[in-house]
Amino acid sequence: MQPLFIQKRSFLTDCIWFVCAVSVIHVLWRVCIHPVYLGNYTTQVFFLSCDVTSFFDWWCRWQAKVAAWLLGSDVLLVGTTMHSLSDPYHSIGVVWSCSAIKQVLILLIALTAAHGPAKHKCWYIPVSVVVCFVFNCLRIAFIAGVSFKNFDWFAPLHQSLKYVFYGLLFVLWVVWEEKFAKHESVS
Prior knowledge:
With about 190 residues, the protein is of the alpha+beta class. The chain has a domain at about 55-180. It is about 65% helix and about 15% strand. The protein has 6 helices and 6 strands, in the order H-H-E-E-E-H-E-E-E-H-H-H.
């Protein structure tokens, strides 16, 4: 019988590679994505030198629409901004950095690069992407719903749920590694 550390070595190594991959992708995102703030909550977003603002704007509108639908009739949606009807002084905008596109790219790259059968990747990756976008819409709706009742909660919720999102990415990757990827036993 092998010691526990040797039995788990493959998974531990994979976890280290996952953390490294997330870090590298995060740095590449910072290098390649350039927001240009135009004032009045308007931003142009560039990937390298290509303007991708319309894509981010379309995606943020869709997610804001879903989040406003989840919140119900107490919310007025104008563009990507949700306004509280019970308190006209509070509104929350869904901006390009709230789109979850970076997190989905991290997951896509991590799962594509992970070992395992392609037949399972063909369905697991799209399902994982849908899970991420559903979670993001729920996250936006939850932040807005709580913040409309007490706006002091906006900053801590926005900050902490970002890390919960990265936890979700890790869980999706662990499920892949434990349930679908073929681990060779260490001899």
